Amino acid sequence: MQENSLRNWKIHLFVLVLVCMTEFIGVKTFNIGIGAIALFPMLYALIIGAIISLPSLKILKMKEMNVAANILGISFMLFVAKLGMLMGPSLPKIFEAGLSLGLQEVGHFAGTILLGLPIALLLGMKREAIGATFSIDREPNLAIIAEKYGSDSPEGRGALGVYVCGTLFGALYLSVLASFMAQTGWFHPISLAMGAGVGSGSMMAAMSGALAVIFPESAKDIAVFAGAANLITTILGTYICVFFSLPFTNYLYKKLEPILGRKSKQIK
After folding, report:
1. Most CB atoms closer than 10 Å: which of 48, 94, 164, 229?
2. CB 174 within 8 A of CB 165
3. Please, which contacts does 50-59 make with residues 24 or more away whose CB atoms are closer than 8 Å?
4. CA 175 – CA 164 distance, rounded (Å)
């Protein structure tokens, strides 16, 4: 099946055209007074891809969409290989960062699992809730789910749904949040820059871009610390997701689903 997927010229042609179009548009930044909002090629590609895949337009058939889903799994493996090449050299930095990054990962864990999972179950989600809440569901997390459960599994659909929402709204939300937090004066610009390293390149760029508008004198330091924190968080977060977050989410799901879950049928 994967061999046939790689030979589907129509899918590859659409991907090539979308990438060229969106990269040509580039990053667009808008000043909104309290800060800045940044729009990225990934967002454009997602929106255009959603439009051309509408059944009413009859541009792509369901069979071709299934082919695209299989290619997605292959793409994740390439991303994981790239991530693996970064892990070794970055391990000393992770150990040097110590407690600060550990506390940051606790925040990710508390927000997504302890808060998100019960809410997802109350809303009627089944196994989709595991994929949706075990992490912030960026590229490395999607790769973990795709490898363990498959990209078309309930867990895979839950993770992909959060990924899409994060791509559409995450950068916008975090740009506004970073601008608001910067205006309060409660935190040093470098602290906010490190907080921008949530494990997502687009979200990190949106937050650091908004901070650079408010603190132009610290723009270079903001970019450096945000990028370093994002890289380390991505690598450290991958280990935590594999060895702790995903197993714990599964365990918590088994305990909470009989209590909080609705008696709705799982989506097939």
Report:
1. 229
2. no
3. 52/14
4. 17
